[in-house]
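Comment thread on ticket #2218

A.B. wrote:
> Attaching the input chain for the structure job we discussed in standup.
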Amino acid sequence: MAGSERTVVWFRRDLRIDDNPALASAARDGAVLPVFIWCPADEGQFYPGRCSRWWLKQSLPHLSQSLESLGCPLVLIRAESTLEALLRCIDSVGATRLVYNHLYDPVSLVRDDKIKKELSALGISIQSFNGDLLYEPWEIYDDSGLAFTTFNMYWEKCMELPIDVSPSLAPWKLVPVPGLESVRSCSVDDLGLESSKDEESSNALLRRAWSPGWRNAEKMLEEFVSHGLLEYSKHGMKVEGATTSLLSPYLHFGEVSVRKVYQLVRMQQIKWENEGTSEAEESIHFFMRSIGLREYSRYLCFNFPFTHEKSLLGNLKHYPWKVDEERFKSWRQGMTGYPLVDAGMRELWATGWTHNRIRVIISSFAVKFLLIPWTWGMKYFWDVLLDADLESDILGWQYISGSLPDGHELSRLDNPEIMENVIATYYALCMVQGQKYDPDGVYVRTWIPELARMPTEWIHHPWDAPSCILEVAGVELGFNYPKPIVDLHIARECLDDSISTMWQLDTAEKLAELDGEVVEDNLSNIKTFDIPKVVLRETSPCALPIDQRVPHASSKDHNLKSKVLKASNRSSICVDMIRSSKMEATSSVANSPVSRKRSFCETAFHVPSYSSSAEVHSHIQDHGGSLVGPSRYLLQEAGRNCVDEVEDSSTADSGSSISRQRKAA
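C.D. wrote:
> Ran it. Output below, let me know if you need it in another format.
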């Protein structure tokens, strides 16, 4: 029987009825006031991006409808202060208790701690629950009581512990608190999640591919476990099409619990074992590892709350990142001259989504080819991803930048011979990896219409193609598709220089400590910045990316200031310090097991593509050795007919933009 307590249930990123510990506890103990508070001021520099806010706007009515069917509507509040909004709710209904589910990102940790202290001091009972993880971060430590800093050791420790995968039962009825009518609730539109009509127009595209809401999340999970999990390890290597679970945005907004995901996957695993389906073992392993990485991202943020702005490894704080706005802009535009990278960036910008393999490739390119600060890339991902998840973004970018002990190639900076192979590795990334993840070039052709007619053997490295191949494909490097913005050999030299500088700075710091001096983290002098809002009126994979504006910074802001640190032996070491710069994720759940994600472009180029150079030469011979007449006209017009108008709404934020071609008649 329910108690007599009046409880405010504070919804955040747990927008579901099923397996919601906070809601279940409140429903058992008495009357309930469900509240969602939208407070942009609390988000700070991590204000959610357009795609993320669109998802939230669609999910809240879904949750509200479900709560209302149980007897208690969801109260929506837009506030300048979350604490003040909670206090008003508590006072209005005479509540004596506040419940919520844990969050682990740096912003939420600070806010939740403050609210807990303030309300506890006023005599309000505060209770929080684990609604997001299999293991709480404070439950997993090594034998010395220290936090793990490598994923494998962390996950091995987790697998040794029992998992409580019994989901909290959804309440069958909710009792509304007396005086509910005295709490002012606004509509979802009044929350301001879509700041303009232009954003609404842009977001209309997202409805073709996604259906937010906790019931849709459960359908998506069941479909994946039944039809996608068995071949997850094999299909997960392909970047074209829907080859992943597509659960990340649902997990981020808490529309499905990780406990339920784990439970269904384990049940399916037992079923396959009984049936003797041995090929499922690898897929289960890879999928559970991805769940483990999500757990680990929360674990790192909780135990090392500075990781959203600083590298975990100490020596990497001296790494001399390049404050290069133009290269950062080219990377964001998908105009680097490396097709697989460009295709990934254009898909990311147009849809708010891209395959995890592509995320690794494009982030690696930014950090290791362009030496762009990983914090810039992390912030850009946060602003444009539909499934933007701060903890996962932090883990991904720290890993790629070599900022973790078990990170990517940069974790081996202590071995110059190994680092010399990094450039070669990323040269292979553009060709070998392209052939591995996009063997037929379908993905590149979908998102880079300029290369639609390139033969498959050249599609991932057009700069190596003979001039006759480029001519028949209608590709003019440097004109309608950029040449590579960075030369491989120059990138190698820059990387070597950066490594050398890093170790000099590391040595300088150790010597300076003997004299009581402190050497700053280079990243602390590179300010984060706001990515301008980009409005997409009509788009398709064929649309070229807009200039998403890089704020102007004067050249003097990029100067490196030399600082001499005197060691105890009186030797001098010149330290280059980087000074500050002014830079400031289906219209319904898939209807069939095969159709998992809607295409954002129903049609692409209707011009022939070539699978080999022989076909190209044959075409040239058929036209007398050159392209004339209709063939040349077709190549010229194909690109124009596939470019939709794209417009940037925040013109006041910058003085530069790229004009876009309108769709030809």
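A.B. wrote:
> Thanks. Noting for the ticket: The radius of gyration is 27 Å.
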